[in-house]
Specification:
This protein is an alpha+beta fold. Helix content is about 30%, strand content about 35%. It is globular.
Length: about 140
């Protein structure tokens, strides 16, 4: 299993809308590195859903339910999409500031490559963010 983080502006597509929809396709990626990350996603991989811009926080966990296919929003064969379903809302959001201040997350792609919209995570990074969500909720 692999672990990922995807970013969405809440005004465009929020965690709450994703929960209400129950499933979505992740499209509109127009960066080759992010596209390659979509291509590498496999059924059952877990994904952290991150609100960019306003909230700047991890909101919940999703799961890949359909591997990479042609992005339906474009005819350009370079671009891909994957399907996701929500798994759980985090007990407490984990903010970018909290992530940056955590010594165990200093090398996370969210900090090192902040503009990338789809990024891989190490299992330790994924688990630490879930742990921080539990700690913050206490």
């Amino acid at each position: 299993m692999h672990y990922w983080l995807v970013k969405s502006e809440p005004k465009k597509y929020s965690w709450e809308k994703f929960i209400a929809d129950g499933r979505t396709f992740w499209d509109g990626v127009r960066n080759f590195q992010a596209r390659n990350n979509l291509r590498a996603m496999q059924m059952g991989d877990l994904v952290l859903f991150y609100h960019s811009n306003e909230d700047k926080a991890v909101m919940g966990v999703a799961k890949i339910v359909k591997e990479a296919y042609q992005d339906p929003t474009t005819d350009d064969q370079n671009w891909l999409a994957v399907d996701l379903i929500p798994v759980q809302t985090l007990p407490c959001q984990v903010t970018l500031a909290r992530i940056k201040s955590d010594n165990r997350l200093q090398d996370i792609a969210l900090v090192k490559q902040g503009r990338l919209s789809v990024m891989p995570l190490k299992v330790e990074e994924f688990d630490r963010i879930l742990e921080l969500s539990e700690l913050t909720a206490e």
